[in-house]
Amino acid sequence: MNLIKTSVLAAAALAASSALAMAAPREVRIASHVSTFSPLHAQSQLFAAEIEKRLPGEFDFKLFPGGQLGEENDLIANVQAGSIEMVNVASGVLKIDGKLGVFDLPWLFDDRAHVERAMAAGLEDAVRKTIEESGNVKVIGVYENGFRHVINTQRAINEPFDLDGLKIRIAGGKFRQAVFQDLGATPVSVPWGETFTALQSGVVDGAEAATYGFYEQKQYEVAGYLSLTSHVYTPSFLIASKAFYDSLTPEQQTVFDEVGRSITAQAYTDAAALEEKYLDEMKASLKVNPVKLKPFQEATAGSYDDYVAKYGEDFLKYVRDTAE
């Protein structure tokens, strides 16, 4: 009798094990508000591929770029509510806590290498902690959305006074709006999808955005100048809902954490390569000029005062300590 009972239990255990082995991979959605042209899409693909290498067959990642599941603010709200597993977003995250507005300050970083040094020196961990505590989410990775530049129909931007009198379509918070106003530009509110027509018709003289934005919208076809002002750098944030992250096994959580950090260097490399590709293709249609940042940094130094008065210099210290 005991032999029969043991055999039955063994058979049941084997069946359960087989069923588990054949279980369908868990579907995980990663949504973004930006298109497949963006570095964010490449980052989501990279993350999914690395997880598959580490945990083969356990997850089925479905990517939803281009606002398919909602605009940026909606995606952030949904991941906070636990109604979507993961999102890869950018400037919308800065609204979670006012201290994150440091990334809206003008000419904060000298170049991508400066960004990487500051992040590695502790800025990334400080930002992660702020987002997780204020936003009730799990930050899997902090990567790159990119530097923002100015495209326009009138002239190359080489010096701060070159912005004087230009009507510029500007996104972002009050810090960015105020900086352009201080330099003599007129901020204009135009939906991003209508910016091409606004440039073509003269409603605006220019726009500021990341390079991939100009490229995907084909704004280079109607604007003669692209100046690499690098006036704002925006990270991207790969975020998981707490509900989803907490439902993972300890092993899966460890792998998600490790992969999220381990792909950081590759994410920066890929973002730089994408930007170079788009710039090379646009150079056939418009003039692209580099910009010496020092005069702009000096002209806008006072714009940091309000931020420092409200939020202190904790984040800024990482930036200043890693500047060359």
TrEMBL record:
Gene3D superfamilies: Bacterial extracellular solute-binding protein, family 7
Homology family: Belongs to the bacterial solute-binding protein 7 family.
Pfam families on file: DctP
Keywords carried by this UniProt record: Receptor, Signal, Transport
Protein name: Extracytoplasmic solute receptor protein YiaO
Gene source species: Hartmannibacter diazotrophicus
Signal sequence extent: 1-23
This protein's GO CC annotations: outer membrane-bounded periplasmic space
CDD domains to which the protein is assigned, alphabetical: PBP2_TRAP_Siap_TeaA_like
